[in-house]
Write a structure and sequence with these properties.
It contains 13 helices and eleven strands. The protein is α/β, with parallel strands linked by helices. The chain has a seven-stranded mixed β-sheet, sandwiched between helices. Helix 8 links the parallel strand 2 and strand 3. It is globular, with a radius of gyration of 23 Å. 46% of the residues are buried. The structure holds pyridoxal-5'-phosphate (PLP). Pyridoxal-5'-phosphate (PLP) binds next to helix 6. The site of pyridoxal-5'-phosphate has 14 residues, from helix 6.
Length: 455
């Protein structure tokens, strides 16, 4: 057996063992394992170390210290769990090690990613000829889509922002909801549009933009809406906002890091009514599509605007092609073939499988809310999607219950402050979570809350 075969098999076996342990291991790692990982430093040797021993050390130290984020009872942040076929496709893609910048050089990657683009547009009900970029996550998907928006609204005003930059450019108005995700405002900052310069539109009790409060549009304008509030899961009224501002030439963007997936479920489509009227959409695949990190997608109706913002040429680069050239649509030149994991996920699930995955997570979220409410705890949001906000009493009690749940290790939930009140967030995004996982987690939550109440 070659050295290559030995180490790759060893890695596969270790990876499989880890994944198969996920259901039963503590979700938050043992503090001793974390302490061992913190002590991993050693002097960098001059002569190098043995490969097999390096991998063994990584597994022995890294596996016990890692959080079971990919497992069925991790409910923190908004975290997917990577389905077996997507991990396997990711491993194979890593083995191929293809630089997916140019169709001319890696045509198979470009072709597979183009299928993913078409399937995603179809699933979300977006125009088939939209452009898509396969990027690291929703942060960069927002950045990418907003770069296209910036190009178009300035071009309409006779300004070439890629060529001439922002100094001396016409005035531009950017509108965001008061509950815009901070990565969206970060993207605006990266684009030179300012993290704090945007007009902020007030929101209602669920964090939805109040459409009537969106200012009248005049001149270059980008309006950023959201599908899926990070805390409540609520949706901005995209249809109303589009019909108010698009006739005046504004570009409407939708940050749908996880909420966009509601569009793939016929029974939930009403939540994203009017989605297809917008100009650009950002979403994550590493959240609800359950592909491995890191994977996000930007989609823009105006493919030319995205291409104008992203494409480059150089004498040594074979960029001229009649096919879709991946790097014409991404901030990166060199990158892995992220769209392959997405292709594998979609091919494996099919349309019904995607809808089932999303609906299943939402029904688990409702089960959590009902169980907590029945035990006398207050649910702070309307559970319209996969997010639940629960208060266990005053802020300090809620904080202590969250700490106790994290220490207990049955499941993992994080905290937040929702409209002035501390809350525990439950986000259900993992393909492998079952009703039994919800019940087991509820039991642990209620036991922790009971102990804190008695203390
Ligand atoms: C609405 C929204 N936008 C953007 C992001 C950022 O996503 P990522 O961390 O994948 O870049 C998130 C993350 O949860 C989100 O919920």
């Amino acid at each position: 057996m070659s050295e290559y075969t030995k180490i790759m098999r060893d890695a596969a076996e270790r990876g499989i063992r880890y994944r198969e342990s996920l259901d039963e291991r503590r979700v938050g790692p043992d503090p001793k394992a974390i302490a061992a990982a913190a002590g991993i430093y050693e002097t960098l040797s001059a002569e190098g170390r043995d490969d097999a021993e390096t991998l063994a050390m990584l597994d022995e130290i890294g596996s016990p210290a890692s959080v079971a984020m990919a497992g069925p009872r991790f409910f923190g942040f908004v975290i997917g769990g990577s389905m077996p076929v997507t991990v396997a496709a990711n491993w194979l893609t890593t083995a191929w090690d293809q630089n997916t910048a140019m169709n001319e050089v890696t045509p198979a990657m470009a072709a597979i990613e183009n299928v993913s683009r078409r399937w995603l547009c179809e699933l979300f009900g977006l125009p088939q000829e939209s452009a898509a970029s396969f990027v690291t996550g929703a942060t960069i998907a927002n950045f990418t889509a907003l770069a296209a928006a910036r190009h178009k609204v300035f071009a309409d005003a006779g300004w070439d922002v890629e060529k001439d930059g922002l100094i001396g450019a016409p005035d531009i108005t950017v509108v965001v909801g008061d509950e815009a995700h901070p990565t969206l405002t970060k993207a605006l900052g990266l684009l030179g549009l300012g993290r704090e310069r945007a007009v902020r539109v007030p929101v209602d009790g669920q964090g939805r933009m109040i459409a009537a409060a969106v200012p009248p549009v005049d001149g270059p304008t980008i309006v950023c809406t959201q599908a899926g509030n990070i805390n409540t899961g609520a949706f901005d009224p995209v249809a109303e906002i589009c019909s108010a501002v698009r006739p005046a030439g504004a570009w409407v963007h939708v940050d749908g890091a996880f909420g966009l997936w509601a569009a793939a479920v016929p029974r939930m489509r009403h939540l994203v009514a009017g989605l297809e009227d917008a100009d650009s959409w950002a979403t994550d695949a590493h959240k609800w599509l359950n592909v491995p990190y890191d994977s996000g997608v930007a989609i823009t109706r105006d493919a030319a605007a995205l291409k104008a913002a992203m494409s480059i040429t150089a004498d040594y680069l074979p960029t001229a092609t009649e096919h879709r050239n991946p790097s014409d649509y991404t901030p990166e030149l060199s990158r892995r073939a992220r769209g392959v994991d997405i292709w594998a996920a979609l091919r494996s699930l099919g349309r019904d499988g995607v809808a089932d995955l999303i609906e299943r997570c939402c029904s688990h979220a409702r089960r959590f809310a009902e169980g907590l409410q029945a035990a006398g705890y207050e649910i702070l949001n309307e559970v319209v999607l996969n997010q639940v906000l629960v208060s266990f009493g005053d802020d300090d009690t809620t904080r202590r219950v969250i700490e106790a749940i994290q220490r207990d290790g049955t499941c993992w939930c994080g905290g937040t402050v929702w409209q002035g009140r501390r809350a525990m967030r439950i986000s259900v995004c993992n393909w492998s979570t079952t009703a039994a996982d919800v019940d087991r987690s509820l039991e642990a939550m209620l036991a922790c809350a009971g102990r804190i109440a008695e203390a």
